[in-house]
Structure prediction request, 416 residues.
Amino acid sequence: MAVTVDRWMLPRELARADEPGEPSGARTPRDWASDITMFAIAALAWCLEFEYFVLPDVLGLPTWARVADAVAGAAVCLAIWWRRRFPVAIGLLAATAGAVANTAAAAMILLLFSLALHRGWKPAIPITALAVLISVPYIHAFFPGAADQPLPWLISLGLGAALVVTAGIGVRARRQVVHALRMRAEAERRGHIRELEDSRRAERQRIAREMHDVLAHRISLLAVHAGALEYRTAQAESGAAPEPSAAEVRDVVAVVRSNAHQALDELREVLDLLRQQPDGEDGRDAPQPTVDRLPMLVNEARLSGQQVRANLADGLGNLRPQVQRTIYRIVQEGLTNARKHAPGATVDVLVSGRVAGEVLVEVANAAPIGVTTSEIPGAGAGLIGLAERVALHGGELTREIDEGEFRMRARIPCAS
Prediction:
């Protein structure tokens, strides 16, 4: 994943990564390796200094001073194991003891480097300057050549200390940048996962909406015809009506068979549409319902026994295919809901021409007795999906019960 570092955002992320390398608990294998290496270097330097410098008494130090030098050097070396937990305190110990103990020189350098690495320049520079100031009188007292030329010694000590602190700050800055980049990459990874989840959720909702729009209409037609045949047969068995003729049974079965086939065909169209890549990259265009198929939809409803009064305007065939499909789905959902919740009621369907830059689609039928606007039947996935479709075109879908009549009305803006 490519990571782009915004130079305006990076300082805030670095501030949140103020303690790179700080232990959150037990040492990691990398921490153990680093501490063992640093302690080994410091201990080796202590041994060499003690054997070749302190033990032979090269500087002519008193016995107590040589013992103190060895003890102070050993203490500073051991302090390396606590440099991560108490960097400032260990840095002060290294600055004071290391400045007057020859055996602690290497350990002091490592600890001042660690202080700059883990706490930055604010504590590192004053503590390092303190180490330089403490070492000046010591060098002046025990190094005769330093008394004659103090400035070169002071400059050398200052440059050496500055080099150590600079190296620590540089490593710290690099770790901060790497840490910030990792944070940014992790944030982008989580964002990408959320986008994938959102897209999957949207696709599932789209599939559910399409399945409902396509299958609910056909299944309701099948239920009406199968119910009519069941009722007629039950009446015949009870002697209340004559036996249905073979022609009547054949006609009902033919209608059921035809609607079942059409349901499968429309389901296949939906699946083909859902398999398409964005912008039709696979080159296939699954046929989608348009306003030209509205008369056929109304005739199918009438053949199923619904009483439908339709007023369908002409001249809407040049609307965008998405708008035509939405108009078709609104009428289809209205007929399906009327068939399910108000069987036998007359359904009025109105699809107006373009007036004031919008198309009016209205489906009305008698509402079940006792139902109010807050209890609109069928106000589930179908109507919610229609509202989403209409909203995508910048329109509005309303549904209400007025004077015992359920009315679903949609206003869809369209170009004139």
Residues 150-237 form the longest helix (88 residues). DSSP finds twelve helices and five strands in the chain. The two ends are 46 Å apart (CA to CA). The CA atoms of residues 92 and 127 lie 6 Å apart.
